[in-house]
Every structure is written in C-alpha cells, then in structure tokens.
Design a protein that fits this description.
alpha/beta; 348 residues; Arginase, Chain A; 10 strands; 8-stranded parallel sheet; binds zinc ion; 14% strand
Length: 348
C-alpha cells in the first residue's frame, strides 16, 4: 500500500487548546504522525512518498470543497493575527467570540478576533504560523492518495495532520482546517467514480464531511462515533440526520454509547459497510481515526490494539478501491500500532 506522508506537518504545532475552561497542552501533536510513520517503516507495508505539489491544481481542488472566503481567511489568518497585535507572534490564535443563532454571519467582520469566531466552532483548534502551509500539504496527501487509487492502486494511505473530518466547507474546529477525506472523495468523483462512500471510524462524529455532502446524492457519508448527547461535537451526529434534498438517504450516523466495546462497535461497522454496499459505491474513503482505542485520553470506546487488525479485514470485505485518511488518535504511544494494524489487516 502506497503511503503519502505530509512532510510539513510539524509546521502546525499548537501550544494550547481550551478544554472545559482551562488552557491545556494540545492533544493533537506532531508526535502522533511520527509514531505512525515509524511503525509503517518498521513493518514495510509499501512505499512511503511525499505528494506532488502543483499549487494551481491544489488550489482548484480545495475550491471544490471549501468556500472561497474561508480559504482566503485561512491563507491570511496568521498575518492578520499579527496585525491585530505584534505580540501575537508568541501566541496561538484561538477564538473567544462567536455569532449565536440570530446574529449576522453573512457579513465578514473587519476585526480579526471576530473573523476567527465566524469561521471556528470551538476554541480547541489553535491556528499557528504554519497551520495553513501544513494543512495545504496535508490536503495534497489526501488528493494524491485518491489519484493513486483512481489510477489502479487497490488502496493508498494519506498520512497527514492536522486531521480533517471536523472541517466544513466554511469552518474549522476539532483540530481540523481542511477536510482531507472530503477532498479525497471529491478527487475520486472527478476521476470517474460515479458514487463514492466516506466511512468515518474516528471516535468523533465526522460533522464536517457530513455537512459538505449532506445535500448530494453522489457521495454517501457514514459515521460511527460516540453519541453526541454526551460526546464532542455535541450539536450534530444523531441517527435521524439522513441527508437533505437530493442527498436524502445518503447520510448514515451510527452513534454508540460511551464505553462501547469492540463486539458492539463491530456490529455498527457491519451496518456501515452494508450501507456502502447498498449505495453501490465504486470507491471508499476511510476517515481513519483510532481514538476508539481503550487508552485514548479524550474518548470513550474500548477497542484494543489487536481489534484494529480485524477492523482492517472487515473494511477489505467491501472489495472497493480504498483511500485511508489519517484522522484522530491521541494515545500517542499506541497510535502507530493501532493505525498500522488497520492497514495490515486490510492487506497491502
Ligand atoms: Zn476523533
């Protein structure tokens, strides 16, 4: 299996995230990716490369999934943050004010602190000097992996951070800025797959991916995740969200109670794979978070390391060209083993 790794991911390294009223060290760290890369290298699952970077082609791909004003915001965010106060050079940008329902979100505020809140849905996602560059390079990994699969590879793995599945067409949050899984799905569509499925196995609901494709009939989105009544991102991810308009029926949420173990989780995976089959997908994107692990510090399922081999085997049973996109997983010492177990179980 080809891996495309993000060579610039270290440029995004937040200091703190706001968590339950405290600034705490970021859970989403560069070491996560380094552990996966080390484990991939150790097991020699296939070639590991960096993606081709054609800036114009990448811009065009980003614009298919994300809104122009949001991409503009991200591109200039760091210089705007410094313009707000030169002392900000030593601080991450975190929002502290948001438009509540009933307030205006159609107008772009001049004050950058307000723009931060307009485009963010939490204060857990620090924007740093290198965030835009790192996120762009990560998006190139996802798009490159999709191109490899569209070109005939059985599977490919986009090893990138920051993660992507919480980012919507016009917003960031949940440690995510650009939606890598959505970009991969769109690239597969553009390369000729008439119907594409995104299966999100991260502990947290893939709200960004859901929202991007919610009204579209050509991309099925399935997410297995902690029940939003108690788990982040809280305000979306319920079972009754089935898609809208032309996309009615093309979204499936499988929320599970905190504390769920592998047996019950695997039943949900089988339901998700049944939906992929019924949809008639010609290609699959797996949003591969391993924060379902029993030792994850911010999540609540109870999968064990050996279970991820079975997850990979189950995913292979769909017999579809498959792009894996790295998402969450915060038990840093285990994230490499767990992620590569899925890929090994799937088969190179
Ligand atoms: Zn997650």
């Amino acid at each position: 299996m080809l891996t495309l790794r993000n060579p610039h991911h270290h440029l995004h390294q937040g200091r703190h995230e706001m968590f339950r009223g405290r600034l705490v060290p970021c859970h989403e760290t560069p070491q996560r990716l380094d552990h996966v890369l080390a484990e991939l290298t150790r097991r020699a699952l296939g070639p590991i490369r960096t993606p081709d970077t054609d800036a114009a082609a990448l811009d065009a791909a980003l614009a298919q999934v994300h809104e122009p004003r949001y991409l503009q915001f991200l591109e200039h965010a760091w210089s705007d943050w410094l313009a707000l106060d030169p002392a900000n050079a030593g601080r991450d940008a975190l929002p502290s004010v948001w438009p509540a329902p009933g307030m205006r979100s159609d107008l772009l505020p001049e004050n950058f602190a307000a723009r931060l809140g307009l485009f963010a849905f939490d204060a857990g996602t620090p924007l740093t000097a290198g965030s835009w560059f790192a996120a762009r390079a990560g998006a190139a990994c996802a798009i490159g992996a999709a191109h490899a699969v569209a070109g005939g590879d059985r599977s490919a793995f986009a090893l990138s951070r920051p993660p992507g599945h919480h980012a919507g067409a016009g917003f960031f949050g949940g440690y995510c800025f650009l939606n890598n899984a959505a970009l991969a799905a769109q690239a597969l569509r553009d390369a000729g797959a008439a119907r594409v499925a995104v299966l999100d196995v991260d502990y947290h609901h893939g709200n960004g991916t859901q929202s991007i494709f919610y009204a579209r009939a050509d991309v099925l989105t399935v997410s297995i995740h902690g029940d939003p009544r108690t788990e982040y991102p809280f305000f979306i991810g319920h079972a009754d969200e089935r898609g809208a308009g032309a996309g009615a029926g093309s979204n499936l949420n499988l929320p599970l109670a905190r504390g769920t173990g592998f047996e019950r989780w695997r039943e949900a995976l089988r339901s998700g794979l049944d939906a992929v089959r019924l949809f008639g997908a010609q290609a699959l994107v797996v949003a591969l978070g391993v924060d379902t692990f029993e030792g994850d510090p911010i999540s609540g399922f109870r999968l064990r390391s050996a279970d991820y081999l079975q997850v990979g085997q189950d995913l292979a049973s769909a017999s579809l060209p498959t792009v894996f996109v790295f998402e969450g997983g915060y038990a840093v010492d285990a994230v490499g083993i767990n992620t590569v177990n899925v890929l090994e179980g799937f088969g190179a």
